[in-house]
């Protein structure tokens, strides 16, 4: 499959990548025999203080790629490095300290929090992962626009949008250098989606972290990403600055995705 990559510099990206994927693949065994390749020979770089949007239709391999980056899946080939350290699949033991700088916000806020523990306890556990943290439980709740008394409550008393904000706070508490959002707004209503996405970007950049934001909502990605990678059937088919992807898309699949967006999104006409 043809891959289109632009080489434009972005103001936030460093010349030395914070995170690098080199020819990464992932395969799954099929029940009837054979193997399915969910990710195929993907190469990507993430700079420091950069937001990279990863877009594509459902089932294209975006979430699998996110799990590979966080060590939640095993590669079938290629390498992933974070600050020059190889990212390896997590075993039964604790996560290696050198990989604690990669934290993930999952799609389902109802499953990502422990229903038996108060929010304060869950945030305190995350704070313990970063001995040099500048956060407190209270400052984390303020950062994600939640009342301080939320610390004493359990997750079942919060709405989906509030739970996702707690999940973001917990990820930030660990002091990540890379925040991976795996469709973090997909389960939220349209009113909240843009707000949560912008909140994630602002909090990541303000804390000195980079972010990979995965979504099938191109309009939201356009608003928060410095660069965009387009994924189709396990392959990255185009990478470029956000402006380039929207104003001068090169790959037919990218053009197809853009053509499916309503022509007016509040920022003018999108090429169709």
Could you explain how this protein is built, in words?
This is ABC transporter ATP-binding protein. One of its GO terms (molecular function) is ATP binding. With 272 residues, the chain is of the alpha/beta class. It has a single domain (4-12, 48-70, 98-259), classed as P-loop containing nucleotide triphosphate hydrolases (Rossmann fold, 3-Layer(aba) Sandwich). The protein has helices spanning 62-69, 119-127, 137-143, 160-173, 190-206, 218-224, 242-247, 252-259, and strands at residues 4-5, 19-29, 35-46, 51-55, 77-82, 85-86, 102-105, 178-182, 210-215, 227-232, 235-241. A seven-stranded mixed β-sheet has the order 1-11-10-4-9-8-7, with helices on both faces. Helix 2 (119-127) packs parallel to helix 4 (160-173) and helix 3 packs across helix 4. The longest helix has 17 residues, at 190-206. The radius of gyration is 18 Å and the shape is globular. Residues 7-14 and 268-272 have low confidence and may be disordered.
List strands and helices in order, with pairings.
Layout: E1 4-5, E2 19-29, E3 35-46, E4 51-55, H1 62-69, E5 77-82, E6 85-86, E7 102-105, H2 119-127, H3 137-143, H4 160-173, E8 178-182, H5 190-206, E9 210-215, H6 218-224, E10 227-232, E11 235-241, H7 242-247, H8 252-259
Helix pairs in contact: 2-4, 3-4, 4-5, 5-6
């Amino acid at each position: 499959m043809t891959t289109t990559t632009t080489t434009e510099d972005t103001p936030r990206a460093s010349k030395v990548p914070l995170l690098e994927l080199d020819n990464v693949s992932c395969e799954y065994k099929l029940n009837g025999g054979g193997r399915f390749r969910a990710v195929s020979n993907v190469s990507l770089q993430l700079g420091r203080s950069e937001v990279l949007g990863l877009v594509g239709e459902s089932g294209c391999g975006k979430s699998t790629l996110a799990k590979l980056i966080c060590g939640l899946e095993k590669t079938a080939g290629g390498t992933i490095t974070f600050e020059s350290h190889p990212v390896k699949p997590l075993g039964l033991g604790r996560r290696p300290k050198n990989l604690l700088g990669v934290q993930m916000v999952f799609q389902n806020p109802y499953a990502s929090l422990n229903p038996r523990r108060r929010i304060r306890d869950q945030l305190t556990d995350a704070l313990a992962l970063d001995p040099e943290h500048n956060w407190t439980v209270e400052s984390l709740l303020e950062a994600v626009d939640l009342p301080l008394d939320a610390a004493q409550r359990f997750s079942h008393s919060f709405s989906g949008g509030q739970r996702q904000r707690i999940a973001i706070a917990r990820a930030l508490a660990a002091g990540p250098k890379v925040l991976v959002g795996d469709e973090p707004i997909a389960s939220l209503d349209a009113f909240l989606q843009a707000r949560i996405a912008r909140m994630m970007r602002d909090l990541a950049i303000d804390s000195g972290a980079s972010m990979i934001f995965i979504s099938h909502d191109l309009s939201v990605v356009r608003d928060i990403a410095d660069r965009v990678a387009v994924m189709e059937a396990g392959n990255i088919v185009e990478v470029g600055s956000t402006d380039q992807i929207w104003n001068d898309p090169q790959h037919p699949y990218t053009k197809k995705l853009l053509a499916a967006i309503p022509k007016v999104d509040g920022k003018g006409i999108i090429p169709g």
